[in-house]
Amino acid sequence: MNENFKVVEFKGSGLASPGPYQEVALYVRNLLKCDYALVAIPEKDSIRIQAIAGAEPETPVNLAADLLARLRDWGPIVVDDSRMIAAPVLQGSHIIGVLVGYSGQPGTFTADDLGRLLEYGPAAAELLIDAGSGQTRTNFSTDELLHFSRLITIGELSACFAHEVTNPLTLVRGHLQFVEESLPAGHPLRINFEVIDRASRRIEEMTKRMLDFSKKRTKRTEPCDIAEIISDALRFIQPYTRSQFVDVDVQLEPEIPMIRMDRWQMVQAVVNILQNAADVMADRDRRCVSITARVDGSRLQIAISDTGPGISRVNIDKIFNPFFTTKGERGTGLGLYITRQVMDEHHGAIDVQTSDRGTTFLISLPL
C-alpha cells in the first residue's frame, strides 16, 4: 500500500448514497455489528471512497480517510487493538475493493469476524463489478467458494471439537484408573492398560493444545523467551510433522535475551512456516526442518530451513501475497501473508532464500 495515497471522495453523501456500494457497506456493518463500515476502491495512486455506513452525512469522508490511513495494506487484517478489520475484495488475483469495519471498543474483532468478512468477499465482488466497470462476474466456482467456506467452518469448530473430546476422555481415564487399581501387581493385562493410558494422555495433551491455540485474545505484548515460543509452536504442530515423517533440529544460541512481543501471534507465525515446510517436503526422501536462533547486534535472527524442492522464480515474489497458494484445495494462501503481518506488527522483517536443495525463511526481530 502506498502510504502517500490520495483519498478521493465518493459521489453522494453518507447513508443517503444509494446503489450497490452502499448496499455492501450496510451489509458489512450489519455482518460485523460495528459502528462504521466503508467500501473503498484502490486506484493507481489513490483510494476512492465509494460508501460509508454509520457516519453522520457531514463527516463521512474525513472519518473514512482517517480509517484508511490506519491500514498498512488491504488485509485481511485486524488492527488498532482489534477495533478495525479490513479485507480485500478480489477478482481473480486483483484487488478491486476494500471492506473496512470499525468499532470504538478495543478487542471487538476476532479471527471469526475476519472469516465472515472474507466469506462475504465473493458476493461483494459481484456487486462492485456490476456497480463499477460493468465487467463480467468473478471466476470463483461454486466448488472454490464451498471449499473456502469449509475451511472457515473447520477453524470455528476445532475448539468445539476439543471441548467435546475432553469430557468423554476424562470419563475413560477415570474408569481406566479404577480398573487398573483393581488388578494385582504383575497381572498380564496391566501392560494393556498402560498402553491405553499413554494413548489417552496423548489425546488429552492434543486437545489442550487445540483449546489453548484457538482462544480469542486481545493483542498483548510481554517479555517472551524465544525458546519457549519455538517450543510451543513445535508442540502444537508435532502431530502433523510426525505424520509426515519430518525430523526437526533446533539449535538456539544460549542466553538469548527476552523480547517484548505478542506471544500467540509469534507462535502462529512460526507454526505457519513449519506447516508449509512439512507440506513442501512430502515427496522428498529426506525431510528435515532446522531452526536456529542467534543474536546479531541489536536484533534476533531466526532461520527456519527445509529440505524441500525450493520455490520457483515465478512464485518467489508472490508467496507473501494474500490468497496465493500452490497447494490447490489444501491451502488458503493466508499463512505466509499473516506471518509477514505479524513481523510488521513487531517492527521485524521476514525474508526468504531458496534453491533446489531447500528454502530458508529468515526472521529478524529487534531486541
Q: Which descriptors would you attach to this protein?
A:
367 residues, alpha+beta, six-stranded mixed β-sheet, five-stranded mixed β-sheet, 9 helices, 23% strand, globular, disordered N terminus
SSE layout and pairing:
Layout lengths: L5 E3 L11 H13 L3 E7 L3 E8 L6 H10 L7 E3 L4 E8 L2 E9 L8 H21 L10 H41 L7 H25 L6 E4 L1 H18 L3 E6 L6 E4 H18 L7 E9 L2 E7 L7 H4 L18 H11 L3 E7 L2 E9 L1
Parallel strand pairs: 1-3, 8-10
Antiparallel strand pairs: 2-3, 2-6, 4-5, 5-6, 7-9, 10-11, 11-13, 12-13
Could you describe the 3D structure shown?
This protein has 367 residues and is of the alpha+beta class. The protein is built from nine helices and 13 strands. The chain has helices at residues 20-32, 60-69, 111-131, 142-182, 190-214, 226-243, 263-280, 313-316, 335-345, and strands at 6-8, 36-42, 46-53, 77-79, 84-91, 94-102, 221-224, 247-252, 259-262, 288-296, 299-305, 349-355, 358-366. The strands form three sheets. The chain has a six-stranded mixed beta sheet, with helices on both faces. The protein has a five-stranded mixed beta sheet with strand order 8-10-11-13-12. Strand 5 (84-91) and strand 6 form a beta hairpin. Helix 1 (20-32) runs antiparallel to helix 3 (111-131) and helix 3 (111-131) packs antiparallel against helix 4 (142-182). It starts with 5 loop residues before the first strand and ends with a strand. Mean pLDDT is 78; it is low at 1-5, 11-17 and 134-140.
Which band does the percent of strand residues land in?
15-25%
Strand order of the largest sheet: 1-3-2-6-5-4
Could you name the ranges where pLDDT drops below 50 across 5 or more consecutive residues?
Answer: 1-5, 11-17, 134-140
* Helix and strand composition category: alpha+beta
Order of helices and strands: EHEEHEEEHHHEHEEHEEHHEE
Tally of strands? 13
Distance N to C terminus: 27 Å
Helix proportion: 40-55%
How many whole angstroms does the radius of gyration measure? 24 Å
